[in-house]
Amino acid sequence: NKATQSEVYKPSEPTDMQAPKQGQTRLTNAAGNPVADNQNSLTAGKDGPVLLQDHHLLERMALFNRERVPERVVHAKGTGAFGTFRVTRAIPELTVAKLFQKEGTECRMLARFSQVAGERGFADTVRDPRGFSLKFYTEDGNWDMVGNNTPVFFVRDGLKFQDFIHSQKRHPVTHRRSETMMFDFWSLRPESMHQVVYMFGDRGIPRSHRHMNGYSSHTYSLWNAQGERVYVKWHFHTQQGIQNLMEPEAMEIAGQNPDFYLQDLFEAIERGEYPKWKVSLQVMPEADAETYHLDPFDLTKTWPHADYPLMDVGEFELNENPDNYFAQIEQAAFEPSNAPRGFGFSPDKMLQARLMSYADAHRYRIGANYAALPVNLNQAVSPVQTYHRDGQLRFDGNFGGMPVYEPNSFGGPVQDGGEAAEPPITVGSRADRYGWPDTDEDYFAQPGALYRLMRSEEQARMHDNFARHLGAAPDFIQGRYLAQLDKVDARLGAGVRASLEKPEMKARPQIETILKEDHTHAAGGPLSGQ
Ligand code: HEM
What we know:
The chain is an alpha+beta fold. It has 15 helices and ten strands. It is globular.
């Protein structure tokens, strides 16, 4: 049969495989040698063993064994799409960033949404924060915003991130996720309460990636041509409206379609229903940071909007699915340290730890030259010109014969400070390990205010949500945690206690309570004994 795939195959659905283009139908090996037979291994005689000389077979087996790069150590399950960001309000008074100089400026971008704790094949609708990563390919290189769908986080010092994540991942013996570990850690680090109250509320399981907000969570900064710095928190409000799933339906979906969110986003974009988000800022003058009644760099606290209202500065829509998931989403490398001129950081301790962590993770996960992969730069908009050379899988020409050191006399790239210089940041003077335990700190006021903002039906659902999970932790941990829920709001503690009494709230029901039918019916059937 001499029919080529393109002759017999007509794609009709976007999810069909794509027909090869002209000249792409001849099968070759990795060196481009035509393959004569892709069906049968080379054997010594019809029934004989396989010959070592079958290089095509060996190459296929060897490359198959190397198909996976390590999954992200956190946020492994996710999906993404390309889109367009548009500035709706120029803010030259706040920043020299080229992106924000003119209203109407547009910029290509990439978004990736993710689960935090689960592995690459994890179910989408499990209760957890969602990652909200954005990469803007600006004229001055990439600006990355690697946030979550909640404005706060569980811990506020990079030194506790590894412990926190271990408590969320799998148990070292049972290899299952463990409510004992989760609630043990949370009850011993009460600064996590604000984020936990978010997570056990309705927003803990969004209806889809399209129906959730994103937040920088951290405090970042912007600086202008006069050398003035402001501290900012970024907000990305969904224009599809917030929609959430209730835990029982979410669990059912997890069983029936673990890739529910992936399907939703992909198909919405294929239908031309491009999801949109509004981009806003809270702006705090630098001087306020000294005197504000909350630590503005504490990632477990929000800035009340009454003090720092939202300023709308842009909007983005996602309008293009990836051509290839691995090339463009799995190999996407987001890093909070990607900050063009005009964008700056803050003394937030977690942010400072993250500035190192992501590039390090990419070098391990994807390789030393990860930044040169097409999805991680936009050469047409902002060409990359560095003195980095060589390294594994240097596939891009390696800057040919350009000078390899600087300064040089041959016109190699030179620094460009721009017209304005980044203003200096004042930092504390006495090096020490400040912070824990600040026994008199109020960990409960903001989560309490959040709880009281919720309607009573949502509060009732939160009581059940907590009980479903807390119920699986040992009594001494339950007791310690309930005492903290009392401090958030007495009604929350009492509500969770009442929910814990309901028999249906037992987390992770035992197999006997799930199996309703007689599962021995296959016994004695025609296949018995085979
Ligand atoms: C992914 C480290 C805190 C949001 C990652 C990855 C690492 C990491 C190593 C995997 C990167 C990769 O392999 O591509 C850390 C450390 C933290 C921290 C050390 C604290 C010190 C946070 C916080 C947020 C966050 C506070 C949100 C506000 C994300 C997101 C991803 C991610 C969204 C997925 C990025 C993507 O879509 O590829 N983090 N993280 N992380 N982290 Fe963090």
